Amino acid sequence: MITQKILQNKFLFIIPVTVLVGLHILWEYFNGGVTTHYLLAREDLPGISNWWGLLTIPLLSWILISLSKWLHNKNQTTYSISKITNGFIGGLVFGILISLLWEFRLENILSYAILLPIPIALFLRVHLPGNLLGFIIGLTYTFGGILPIGIGTVLIIGSFLIWTIFRKGLPFIFQKINQSIH
């Protein structure tokens, strides 16, 4: 029910997310300064300040909620409200898991866990906007407002390619081969 209300009025999600990002940045500001995240966690590479999260997270939320609404309106049977909600929660839990693995310095497990969406894409559609939004929100506290978008985009593209190739492409090829044999 709440997901349907959010699809109808995006501000029900965007305003609380923006407030939380703002509170997090204020807390950082008054406790040692706003964090800057460096690419590949190396200070000799360019840094990205958490200040950007005030722009990127609300904007991305707007875009992904709009896309979810469009997909739901286009085909309510394959992209139902429950699938949007479950995808968001699944992405959120996965994002929090990745954040915890990073915070507890379990990089050896993290290096495998971050790739989980790729094999899962053989069975489930993990490349949907709700999943990406949940994943990014789950990573935002630990990684700021830019790096999660890049990480999530790469994972979504990989998952989409796996889903398309194995769930759509291979059956089509096998069908054509079967037709040419008979």
UniProtKB/TrEMBL annotation:
<feature type="transmembrane region" description="Helical">
    <location>
        <begin position="133"/>
        <end position="166"/>
    </location>
</feature>
<feature type="transmembrane region" description="Helical">
    <location>
        <begin position="84"/>
        <end position="102"/>
    </location>
</feature>
<keyword id="KW-1133">Transmembrane helix</keyword>
<keyword id="KW-0812">Transmembrane</keyword>
<feature type="transmembrane region" description="Helical">
    <location>
        <begin position="50"/>
        <end position="72"/>
    </location>
</feature>
<keyword id="KW-0472">Membrane</keyword>
<feature type="transmembrane region" description="Helical">
    <location>
        <begin position="12"/>
        <end position="30"/>
    </location>
</feature>
<protein>
    <submittedName>
        <fullName>Uncharacterized protein</fullName>
    </submittedName>
</protein>
